[in-house]
Design brief:
alpha/beta, Rossmann fold, Dehydroquinate synthase-like, alpha domain, two-stranded antiparallel sheet, 49% helix, binds fe (ii) ion, Iron-containing alcohol dehydrogenase
């Protein structure tokens, strides 16, 4: 038996935010990130719509990019005091991810963080509050429709992907106006993250008849719109906002693969700086396709993707196409060249066995179409560092 779970309601298109006026509840906790939602006036609009719906509101502000365990605990404490029956998370992936974890600790104050990191073992949520997610500037993670959240433990330098259908939001509001504020670099990174979601979902060992059409259509939309969106085309940006969400629906139910395992474990591992999630995926995706394609079933499915977007039906054609997209989006082809070389080669090599081992153990590895040993993972990561061909 398989499960396919999405939010109960999804509002999209122009003025979708107005759906907030129809929400039922008495108290809403609004979780936001930095200042952009406030600056562009969306926060005021959201607050006024919630008041129109008869709700008292409280703000939990300042969720940082790659939210920390501490931020989650701070927000949960505010919720325990205020007792909201609606949680409205607004912004990029980070505030929505953080709010999902806050929600769990609000409903179960005695829970420990360690209890939540076992995949699909969450306690039953929605005994106190419903969850509304409104994605904005970082459209890409599609956390508004997924069963996932990534929380960073900075002390240990590890990103924890939380996974459970309990944290799939009740309502998603995908309003294109919020995506228009996104700067080009973020557009490129989050767009490639979305493409990775759709491709990994399509070749996942858990893909099914319900996830395949979502993944394929998302890939086609991203292929047709991402570069234009990066170059400032407004309509293409609107289409990307929907495309990333479709990709999210696919991967929330089909899960992902080792591109994400590698991105999770390399993201916060080096002293030179973070490797931003979307950029990491963009760099690793072509290498992983080459690795996975040694498995005949995976080669066949990559070929199906390639054919669907008008290429030769091979993994090779798909790889070349993705490399070309990365070039047009000004994304570095290797970790070594990432952000002008902020990741130190000696440190990378020193940490390689540990990072490889952690990546193999990541929750996303289980649904990858080809199995991988720590030794193979070391070779793959090395190929990503030096931009070498993968032929093993
Ligand atoms: Fe991702």
């Amino acid at each position: 038996m398989y499960r396919f779970t999405l939010p109960r309601d999804l509002y999209h298109g122009e003025n979708a935010l107005e759906a907030l006026k129809t929400l039922e509840g008495t108290k809403a906790a609004i979780v936001v990130g930095g200042g952009s939602m406030k600056r562009f006036g969306f926060l005021d609009t959201i607050e006024s719509y919630l008041k129109e719906a008869g709700m008292e509101t409280i703000l939990i502000e300042g969720v940082e990019p790659d939210p920390s365990v501490e931020t989650v605990m701070r927000g949960a404490a505010v919720m325990q005091e205020f007792e909201p029956d609606v949680i409205v998370a607004v912004g990029g992936g980070s505030p929505i991810d953080a709010a999902k974890a806050m929600w769990a600790f609000y409903e179960y104050p005695e829970t420990k963080f360690e209890d939540l990191i076992t995949p699909f073992a969450f306690p039953t949520l929605r005994t106190k509050a419903k969850f509304v997610a409104i994605p904005s500037t970082s459209s890409g993670t599609a956390t508004e429709v997924t069963a996932f959240a990534v929380i960073t433990d900075y002390e240990k330098g590890i990103k924890y992907p939380l996974a459970d259908f309990n944290i799939t939001p009740d309502v998603a509001i995908v309003d294109p106006a919020l995506a228009q504020t996104m700067p080009p670099k973020l557009t490129a990174n989050t767009g490639m993250d979305a493409l990775t979601h759709a491709i990994e979902a399509y070749v996942s060992t858990l893909h099914c008849d319900y996830t395949d059409p979502l993944a394929l259509h998302a890939i086609k939309m991203i292929d047709e719109n991402l570069v234009d969106s990066y170059n400032g085309d407004k309509e293409a940006r609107n289409r990307m906002h929907n495309a990333q969400c479709l990709a999210g629906m696919a991967f929330s139910n089909a899960l992902l693969g080792i591109v994400h395992s590698m991105a999770h474990k390399t993201g916060a591992a080096y002293s030179g700086g973070h490797i931003v999630h979307g950029a990491a995926n963009a760099m690793y995706l072509p290498k992983v396709i080459a690795y996975n394609a040694k498995e005949p079933e995976a080669e066949k499915r990559y070929g199906e993707i390639a054919a669907f977007i008008g290429l030769e039906p091979t993994s090779k054609a798909l790889i070349e196409h993705i490399n070309e997209m990365n070039k047009q989006l000004n994304i570095a082809p290797s970790i070594k060249e990432y952000e002008g070389g902020i990741i130190d080669e000696a440190e990378f090599l020193e940490k390689l066995p540990t990072v490889a081992e952690l990546a193999v153990g990541d929750a996303c590895t289980g649904s990858n179409p080809r199995s991988i040993t720590p030794e193979q993972m070391e070779r793959l990561l090395k190929a990503c560092f030096y931009n070498e061909d993968v032929d093993f």
